[in-house]
Amino acid sequence: MALRDKQGRPLVAVTGMGVVTSIGQGKDETWAALTAGRSGIHRIERFPTEGLRTTIAGTIDSVKVEPFCAPMLSERLAMLAAEEAVGQSGLAPTDFPGALFIAVPPVEMEWPQREVLAEASGETGDVTYKDLLKAAATGRFKAWHDLFIFGTVADRVADRFGTRGSPISLSTACSSGATAIQLGVEAIRRGEADAALCIGTDGSVNPESLIRFSLLSALSTQNENPEAASKPFSKNRDGFVMGEGGAALVLENAEKAKARGAKILGYVLGCGEKGDGFHRTRSSPDGSPAIAAINQALADAGVSPNDIDTINAHGTSTPENDKMEAMSCTAVFGERMASLPISSNKSMIGHTLTAAGAVEAVMSLLTLSTGRIPPTINYHVPDPAIPLDVVPNVARDAKVDFVLSNSFGFGGQNTCLVFGAEPKGA
Amino acid sequence: MRDVVITGVGLVSSAGEGLEAHLAALSGGAPRTDAETFAPHPVHPVAPLEWDRQIAKKSDQRQMEAWQKLGCYAAGLALDAAKAKDDAALKGRMQLIVAAGGGERDYAVDGQILTGLRQAENPGVFLNERLMGDLRPTLFLAQLSNLLAGNISIVHGVTGASRTFMGEESSGVDALRIARERIASGQDDIFLVGGAYNAERPDVLLIYEMGGFLWKKPYAPVRERPADGGGMILGSGACFLVLESREHAEARGVKPLASIAGVASDRSRRKPGSVEQALHGLSAQLGGKPDAVISGATGVKGITEEELAALKDIAPGAAVHATGDLVGHTMEAQAPTGVALAAGLISEGKAAEALVTSVGHWRGEGAVRLVKA
To answer: What digits encode the pLDDT tens for the residues A50-61?
Structure first.
C-alpha cells in the first residue's frame, strides 16, 4: 500500500486515542456506554440551579480539581485523554515527537475568584473593579494570572508530554476539536512534523456559561427527564444539552508509524472547512457553507459521496442545526441520505462544545474499527421534515470503511473530517 | 516552496489609523497615554475612529464590543490596502486566522452582583437570578474568542474559513507562522491574519495586575523600565495583514510591501537566560542580517534586558524600535503590529531586511524575518 495519498502527501495515521466523557473515563468505557445507548445527562449538582431555565448537563463530576474552575477541569480532561492516547501510541510519554494543537474553551476569571478579590479589597460598600484591582495589587493572587490566561492549558499539556515547538491553542467554537485535528493533519502533510498531538477539551459547565447559552435560547429546557432531553433530529427537540469532555488523538506520518511498528487505528483522510458570513449564530439558509465543507472533506480524502458508510453528525438537538445539517447532507448525498446512517453521539454525552469534534473523531474511528454504529437515542418522534436513518435508539453493526464527521459552530464555523480504516483503493 | 508577501496592512492604535501614521510616529516622541481613567494604570487609548467607514451597519457595530470593532475596522483597512475589498469572489476564498483573547464584561452588572452577593441569603441562587436577569443575551457573542473572526466574515465577507488562535502574544506569532506555511506549501493562496486588543478594560488590567506585570508610573520607554521595577503598559489597537503568494499577488496586479522570509516560535519553561537563549535560537533558524528590528519588548523586568542583550548580538548596528513605545503592549496584536511596521519600513526603503521579535510577557518567544519583496 502506498503511504502517500493521491495528491502525493503523506498519509496521516491515527496511532493513539483517548477520551473522557460523562459516560466513561477512557475509550473502552465510553464506547461501551455509547453503543449501549446510555445517557450521561443528569441534573446539575455542581452548583445551585434554582432560577435557571435549564438544570441538566453532561458534567464530569468524577474528576476533581482544585481550585474548581473551567481551565483547571479542561486541563485535567485534556491530560487524561492525552495520557491514554500517547500511552496507546507507544511513543515516549514525556518526549512527544511533534507539535501540540489543542482546542480549549475561552477562559476568564470566574465568580468564586471575583468574590475572593472583592472580599480581599476590604470594601464594605458598593464593589467596583477598582476594588478588585486594589486587591490584585497585593500580589496575593499571582497564581490566578497564570490560571486565567488563554495559553496556560496548552502550556501545561505541552510541558507534561514534551511536545515540540509553540503549542497552538485554538477556538472555532463548536467545531474546535475538528480544527485541532485538521491543524495536525496539515502539519504532517507539510512535513513539518512526523507526529501531532491533537486535543479537544471542555470542562466549562458553570453558572455563567450555562446562562449565556440559555439566554440565547440554545439549550434544551426538558429538565424533567434529563436522560431524554437531548434528542437530535426528533420533532420535539428543543435545544442542546451542555456536556463536558476531553479527547486526544496521536496523529503520525503513516510511513513513520509503520516503520516503528506502531498499530494503526485508522486514517484521517480528509479535512474540509468553509466560513459563513450570514449571521453570528445562524447558518446560511441554503446550507451552502456546510455543503462546501462536506464536499471539500470528501475531495480532500479522495472519496466520493457513495463511499461514505455512515455520518457522525454534529446533531446538536437544536431545531436549527439539525434541520440545516439534514438539508446539507441531503444536498451532498442525494436520495441516498434516506438510508445512509447518520447518528449523533450528543444524544448521550450532550454537546461537549470545544471538545466535541475531537470526542466524535474518536467515536468515528471506533466505529471503523469495530463495525458498530452508535445510536441516536431518544428518537421516538421523527421529524417528518428531515427523514433520516438516525440509527434510532439501538446501535447497529455494519461494514464501515469510511466515516464523515461533521462539526459546525457559532461564528460561521463549518469543519468536516473523513476517516477511513484504509485509504481508498488500498 | 512559494514566496509569501504582504500586500495589505490595516493598523489602528493610540498612534492613529493606517500604516503611514504609524511609520511617522516611529520617529516621533512619546506615545499617547491615558494615565487617569484606570489610575494608577496608564493605558495607551486607541485614537478615535469613525466606525461607519469600515463597519457600515450600526446593527453590526452594536453586536460587537470594542476589541471586535477594532479588529473588524483594521481588517477592513487591510482589505482596502490589498485592493481586495471589492472582490467578493476573492474574499469568498480568502482564509482567515485571528489571534484573539476574548471577554469584555458588563462591569456595572459585575459590581452590582459582587455587592449583592455579600448579603445574599443564598449566594448561588442570587447569582443565577441576577445573571439570568441582567446579562444582555448578545453580550456572549461579544465575548466569544472566535467571534472576531465571525464578525469579519459577516462585515467584510471574508469567508474562505476562519481559525482563531488563543494564547496571548504567542497566538499572534503562530497565526502568522501557520498562514505563511499554508501559503508557502501551496495549500492556500491568500490570507487575512491579525489580532485586536482592547486595553481600556478593567477586567484585563485585573488579570495582569494579579500577575504583577503592569507599569504603574508615568510612561517611560520599555528599555528604561526594568531598572525601575519593570512592567508593561497595555495598548488598545488592532492589526491585520493580507498575506499571499508572490504569484497570486502578481496575478492580481498588487504590489507587495515586503516578503515574509520566515516565522519561528517556541516555548520553554522560563528561567533566567532562557529568553536570550531562545532569541538566539530563533534568529539562527531564520538567518539573515537585519538592519532594522521591531521589538515587541514588554518592559517586564528580566525578559526585556535579555531581549535587548540578544538583539545586540543578533542585529548589531540595526535600528531597534519597540512597539511598546509606539502603541503599547497589544498582546495578541503585538506580533502582527510589529510585522506591519517592518513591512512599512522595507516598503519605504528605510530597511532592507527586518527582524520582528515577540517575547511574551509570561511565556512564548517568536521572531519574524522580513525582506524586500
So the answer is: 999 999 999 999
Write down the catalytic residue from A69, A198, A271, A314: A314
> Does residue B194 sit in the same domain as residue B271?
yes
Q: Is A314 a catalytic residue?
A: yes
B32 in Cβ contact with B45 (< 8 Å) = yes
Q: Are residues B116 and B162 in the same domain?
A: no
Contact list, B168 vs chain A (CB under 8 Å): 149-151
Q: Are residues B170 and B212 in the same domain?
A: yes
SS3 B237: strand
Which candidate, A390, A386, A385, A357, places its Cα nearest to that of A374?
Answer: A390
Question: What is the CATH topology of the domain spanning A12-108+148-420?
Answer: Peroxisomal Thiolase; Chain A, domain 1 (3.40.47)
Give the span between the Cα atoms of A35 and A369, in whole angstroms: 13
Distance from C-alpha of A344 to C-alpha of A313, rounded to nearest angstrom? 5
**Hey, which residues does A396 pair with through a beta bridge?**
A373
What is the rounded CA–CA span in Å between residue B158 and residue B89?
9
Q: Which residue in the list A198, A271, A329, A351 is annotated as catalytic?
A: A351
* Cβ–Cβ < 8 Å for B211, A142: yes
pLDDT band at A97 (very low <50, low <70, confident <90, very high): very high
What confidence tens digit (pLDDT) does each residue in A153-187 have?
999 999 999 999 999 999 999 999 999 999 999 99
CA distance A53 to A93: 44
pLDDT at A2 over 80: no
Report pLDDT digits (tens) over A63-96.
Answer: 999 999 999 999 999 999 999 999 999 999 999 9
Global pTM reads 0.98
Residue A426, pLDDT score: 76
Q: Residue A115 carries which side chain, given as an amino acid letter?
A: E
For A143, the enclosing helix (H) or strand (E) is: helix A142-147
Q: Is A328 on the interface with B (CB under 8 A)?
A: no
Q: ipTM surpassing 0.85, yes or no?
A: yes
Give the phi and the psi of residue A110 in degrees, each rounded to 5. -110, 175
Q: Where are the beta strands (DSSP E) in B282-336?
A: 292-295, 319-322
What is the phi-psi region of residue B252: left when phi exceeds 0, alpha when psi lies from -120 to 50, beta otherwise?
alpha
The answer to whether residues B294 and B239 belong to one domain is yes
What Rg, from alpha-carbon coordinates, does chain A have? 21
Which residue in A109, A116, A130, A133 has the most chain B C-beta atoms within 10 A of its own C-beta, making it the best mutation to test that interface?
A: A133
For B104-151, the DSSP string reads ---HHHHHHHHHHHHH-SSHHHHHHHHHHHHS-TTHHHHH-TTHHHHH
**Tens digit of pLDDT for each residue in A364-382?**
999 999 999 999 999 999 9
Say whether both B238 and B202 belong to one domain. yes
Asked if A329 is an active-site residue, the reply is no
Inter-chain contact B203–A211, Cβ cutoff 8 Å?
no
Cross-chain Cβ contact A179/B208 below 8 Å: no
CATH number at residue B22: 3.40.47.10
Q: Is the pLDDT of residue B146 over 80?
A: yes
Angle, helix A111-121 to helix B107-119, in steps of 10 degrees:
70
- Bond prior to B40 in cis (omega within 30° of 0): yes
Domain containing residue B130: 107-140
